[in-house]
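During the second half of the funding period, the structural biology subgroup turned its attention to how the target accommodates small molecules. The most pressing case was arginine, which had performed well in the primary screen but for which no bound structure existed. We therefore specified the complex as follows and requested a full 3D prediction, including the ligand pose.
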Amino acid sequence: MTLLQHLNSLVTSAFQQSDIPETYPTLISLSQRPEFGDYQVNGAMQAAKALKINPIALAEKVAAYLSKQPTIQSAQACKPGFINIFIEDQWLTEKLNNLYLSSRCGIKKASSPKTIVIDYSHPNIAKEMAVHHLRSTVIGDSIARLLFFLGHNVIRQNHIGDWGTQFGMLIALLESDEYDYIETPKLSDLENFYKAAKKRFDQDTDFAKKASSYVVKLQSNDPYFIKIWKKIVHISMEQNQQIYHRLNISLTAADVYGESAYNDLLPMIIKLLVKKELLTQHNGAKVVFLEHFKNKENEPMGVILQKSDGGYLYSTTDLAALYYRAHNLDATEIIYCVDARQTQHLEQIFSIAALANFIPKDIVLKHYEFGMMLDATGKPFKTRSGKTIKLSDLLDEAELRSTNILAERHSDLEEADRVKVINALAIGAIKYADLSKNRSSNYVFNWDSMLSFEGNTAPYLLYAYTRIQSIFRKSKHITVQDTDKFSLKETIERKMSLILIRFHDVLNKVEKEGKPHLLCSYLYELASHFMSFYESCPILNTNIDPEQQKSRLMLCDITAKTLKIGLDLLGIQTVDRM
Ligand code: ARG
């Protein structure tokens, strides 16, 4: 049981003893100030109001029950009806012992694991990954790591944009004489070809006709066209995979299941919708009209699923993907880590699936939407000339800046370690800057603040971690045994313990809300308290009591483990020295 779950069960019994009906929530939160205890209960006050009884009398009754519990040192009722809870030190030290002895900081895997599909990253083929792919990739990967750590069966799905009319143009161009089909074009070549093809398509009617006929050939699985198309996809994904590797993203080639993978399912999806009488013929197209989505004229909005020429759309593919994930992958939950601008699209897909009744009723569908990356002036983050920034260029710049920062710090690391630190700082800073903001809002991309060693940043956390490693290096002569006990004499030691014990509750909350920034804030709180603890509680002094010294070293140990696991869940690698 986590700390919060334990308190919740105590308060629930206290409510029962005090005749508060079960329907009233306990409302337990962290206390804002130490004199108000460790945790605060607000539920009794709310219940008293609704039940029209004296709040302070009710709070006293609840507090009296809580005070008798062995794990509670004291519980006090305060006006107008809060209850402040102080946790028993002995219970804290027992909990700390569990954390100390466990390599997972005491976090058990889920007893009934869910099968969770996560749709993230999903770049479009024949284009280099750009900054706008960063958020989905980084946030999705962190969620995937967290859910896996908590014991769920996680299935990553990279829903790449690998199908559509653009491939007809691209193949037509690659085939034409002046491009002299290159055996192994690079992705940057493909992107240029694609731009040239688009231009030609708009200007040259013969070329446009040819390109359109190639789309038809491709869609009817003509082996020659499929072969070239496969090559284009392969070149693109090979390069994207290198970006994933640089960014320490856990996606592999096996997780790629793009739009093209659903081709064969599309006619079946249409048939299903016809059978449910959901499709209407509208100007030759097949459309589902959704009553609760209104268009500009305030009429039910139509979602086109098949065009008059028989072609399918992004929506059709997404319906097929939903079907596949529910039935073939047996998902109990599906998480879409997709740009907030696609909110309506996804809501429509979820609504159509519900109307058609083609996925189990209890399947949980979540859209983890995110905002945009902005520059200092509040505009979408682009190059000076207004072009999209390639992800590989962004990573190069991060590495360059980290190299300079490390040089300024006169670090005397050996070459191999120096490279590791530069990498950890560069990648850590980019990912952490993104993950530490509430994903639902836009955020301002700022090199200086993300690479600063002060504040809620990756460099700060990475540095705190190396401080602890340096303490371990200097205290090698002290042997701590598993049987050694914690002794929490100073207020800051007790505070550190409470923060460490909270880790599991924090992870549960991140799982529930899908918001990695909650984990970031927690790690920052932990690291900054560690810095104060280390300043006021000497560890390496010779005149310090050995019991105290060991207890403090054990606190360092749990702190380091928590930071490492926490950063790992964010996809950020730690280093032992800087
Ligand atoms: N490739 C799409 C784009 O770049 C995003 C795909 C999101 N996932 C999905 N199942 N629709 O806009």
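Two results from this model are relevant to the next phase. Residues 119, 122, 124, 159, 161, 318, 321, 336, 338 surround arginine (CB under 6 Å). DSSP finds 19 helices and 13 strands in the chain.
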